Amino acid sequence: MASAAESGWWRDYLLATDGREGHPVRVGALAEPPDEWLGAIAHGCGAALAPASNARCHARPAVTHRLVIGVGPSRGARARAPADDRDPVVQDSVRRSQENGGAEGSNTTG
To answer: 99 Cβ partners below 8 Å, 6+ apart?
Structure first.
């Protein structure tokens, strides 16, 4: 999930482009307001990096937020639908995050 290219630095931040060390970004869908992209995640259209505050401000029963370490300068959270845990693309993304210092935490949305 990503915002439109016109979002500039915000899109780059949420895609963690500065910490990818040349690894390409794979964008499955474009979405703008939080409700739109969280809805897309809840429907299995992808995963996304989001500010940690989204776990509190935009909680949804069908979306799990996880702490991601190494996305700077602030903390980010990985948001995905619990059903996506079986998706090989999501599994690969989680594995890469964990290999780079990320930690899978508990569901902060309840």
So the answer is: none
Q: Identify the residue whose tokens are 């776990």.
A: 55
pTM for the whole thing? 0.53
Q: How far apart are CA 10 and CA 32, in angstroms?
A: 11
Give kind and range of the element (H or E) at residue 13: helix 9-14
Domains of the chain: which residue ranges?
Answer: 5-99
Confidence of residue 51 (pLDDT cuts 50, 70, 90): confident
User: Rounded to an integer, what distance in angstroms lies between the CA atom of residue 26 and that of residue 21?
Assistant: 14
By the 10 Å C-beta count (0-12 exposed, 13-18 middle, 19+ buried), 41 is classed as buried
- What is d(CA 76, CA 87) in angstroms, rounded to the nearest whole number? 21
| Range ranked top by mean pLDDT from 18-22, 75-79, 91-95 | 18-22
For residue 86, the 8-state DSSP code is: G
